[in-house]
Amino acid sequence: MQDTQIKQSSNWMIFTAVSFSVAAIMMALGIYNLEASFSAKGFYAMASLMLVHTTVTLTKTLRDRDEAEKLHNRLEDAKTEKLLMDISRPDQD
Q1: DSSP letters of 2-23?
Q2: How far is residue 52's CA from residue 36's CA, in Å, rounded to a whole number?
Q3: Which of 18, 69, 78, 91 is the most exposed place for a label (fewest CB within 10 A)?
Q4: Is the model's pLDDT at 42 over the cut of 90?
């Protein structure tokens, strides 16, 4: 069996962290400079935080499901391989 986990490069990790930071700062500045009441700004701020939170949660949930399916498939492959080895082995009496 071969473990095919994809490792992320450090450059990619830095890029995604910087991208997230820039987007969060732009959103915060946009809400701060918005010509609206304090309660409207608060609503937009809470909505943006909730959107980020649910995006992270959804991403983690989908990744966990994918990892569970990979494990299940590896177990099934191992069972099938063992069964085929048992069948192809000549009877030893």
Answers
A1: ---PPPPPHHHHHHHHHHHHHH
A2: 22
A3: 91
A4: yes
* Residue at 53: amino acid letter: H
pLDDT digits (tens, 9 = 90+) for 4-34: 566 779 998 999 999 999 999 999 999 999 9
Please give the Cα distance from 41 to 44 (Å, whole number). Answer: 5
Contact 66, 4 (CB under 8 A): no
Phi, psi of 28 (to 5 degrees): -65, -45
Question: Distance of CA 89 to CAs 12, 27, 77, 81, Å?
Answer: 48, 65, 18, 12
Closest by CA position to 8, among listed 17, 51, 19: 17
